[in-house]
Amino acid sequence: MPSPTLSRRGAITAAGSALVAASLAGPLLAARASARFEITRSPAEWRRLLGPHRYAVLREGSTERPRSSPLDQERRRGTYVCAGCRLPLFASTSKFESGTGWPSFFRALPNAVGTRTDTTLGMRRTEALCRRCGGHLGHLFRDGPQPTGLRYCTNGLALRFMPA
Questions:
Q1: Measured between alpha carbons, how far is residue 54 from residues 26, 136, 160, 162 in Å?
Q2: CA pair distance 126, 111, nearest whole angstrom
Q3: 125-134 burial, b if ≥16 CB within 10 A, otherwise e?
Q4: Is 139:158 a contact under the CB 8 Å cutoff?
Q5: From the candidates 85, 130, 133, 153, which is the catalytic residue?
Q6: Residues 139 and 154: beta-carbon distance below 8 Å
Q7: 147: cis peptide before it, omega within 30°?
Q8: Is 82 an annotated catalytic residue?
Q9: Domain residues of the chain, as ranges?
Q10: How far apart are CA 161 and CA 77, in angstroms?
Q11: Which are the contacts of 160, defined by CB distance < 8 A and separation ≥ 6?
Q12: By the number of CB atoms within 10 A of the CB, which of 22, 28, 33, 101 ranks highest?
């Protein structure tokens, strides 16, 4: 994915954000490494399998820019699977337009998504993870539509779409 051209202010902001993210990555990676998942790989194997952008999201908890994923505009019927291990995570029928710029879903498929508390960036949020490989998907919020009231705010890079 090509990097957009940044203004000087944008470059300074991006550099500052990168420093904050780097300082937080150690604890996040340590927590992920201590958890047990069905599919495990070394960091080198994950990097080779995912590429740099997907690796940053799925394995380091990074977030892609809003409105940068084509999956945010995907409207076909199908299933969204984990980009790391291909576990089916969300049905297209649970996708909705949240206005956030990331693919959003009001329900995960059964036994697909795990959660844990995320206190990075000085906030208390619920992180959504692939149940099988532990890949960071995004965050779960309680401001979604009925019938669940949930919003899985998901990085498009964490997903692959499989049309029906």
A1: 18, 10, 11, 17
A2: 17
A3: bebbbbbbbb
A4: no
A5: 153
A6: no
A7: yes
A8: no
A9: 8-163
A10: 9
A11: 80, 81, 82, 83, 86
A12: 28
Element spanning 105, H or E: strand 104-105
Question: Pairing between strand 104-105 and 151-154?
Answer: antiparallel
pLDDT per residue, tens digit, the chain (164 aa), is: 444 433 444 444 444 444 344 434 433 443 444 468 999 999 999 999 999 999 999 999 999 999 999 999 999 999 999 999 999 999 999 999 999 999 999 999 999 999 999 998 889 999 999 999 999 999 999 999 999 999 999 999 999 999 99
**Given strand 88-91, what is the order of strands in its sheet?**
88-91, 78-82, 159-163
- Beta bridge partner(s), residue 153: 104, 139
The pair of three-digit structure tokens given for residue 63, joined into one six-digit string: 């977030």
Chain centroid, CA 131 distance in Å: 13
Burial class of 80 by CB neighbour count within 10 A (0 to 12, 13 to 18, 19+):
buried
Identify the three-state secondary structure at position 38: coil
Architecture of the domain spanning 8-163: Beta Complex (2.170)
Tokens 């300074």 correspond to what residue?
A: 12
- At a CB cut-off of 8 Å and minimum separation 6, what does 71 contact? 80, 103, 156, 159, 161
